[in-house]
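Might you be able to check the backbone structure tokens below? Thank you kindly.
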Amino acid sequence: MNKPLRPILIIGKIGRAHGLQGEVRIQSMTSDPDRFYELSDCLLLSPDEKTSRDARCESARVTPEQVLIKLRGIDTRETAETLNGWLLAVHRENAVSLPANTWFICDLLGCSVYDEQRGFLGELADILQNAAQDVYVVRMPGQQDLLFPALKIIIKQVDLKERRIDVQLPDGLYGVYRGDNT
């Protein structure tokens, strides 16, 4: 099932305006909010992702509570408010480099998940980001969602070209969610 990877990556959602000079709050959708310091060329996507326009980030401020950015041409609070709900994205080639054996969440979502013993488990529907580690949510119609931690001892292989994730679930985990302890 060779589905091409998205050419753009969403890195945040624009919220309310901040101050009078056109800054906007960003709900970060990246594991490293400091990446906004390096942001320059970016894209603005309408909430339905049907409309896009090029943008340039002039400055960023990152605090423990929020990310604030200033976009070129957005110079008033009123103009900034019109972007509330829009998405902030970058072209894949401008995305931050990832360490080995890590992937962008948007690339993993929708992958088929296979267990060495049970075969096809469903599709990766969500990734819950917790303090200790991410938790993968695998969904199959007619079945209860299956959750497991994103650990190297469980995830054996990720093949984005084939949109496939191979796992080896710990004994008993499958039965907790789907009622079969074999």
About this structure: The mean pLDDT is 92. The chain has two domains: 8-93, 105-178. The first helix runs from residue 77 to 81.
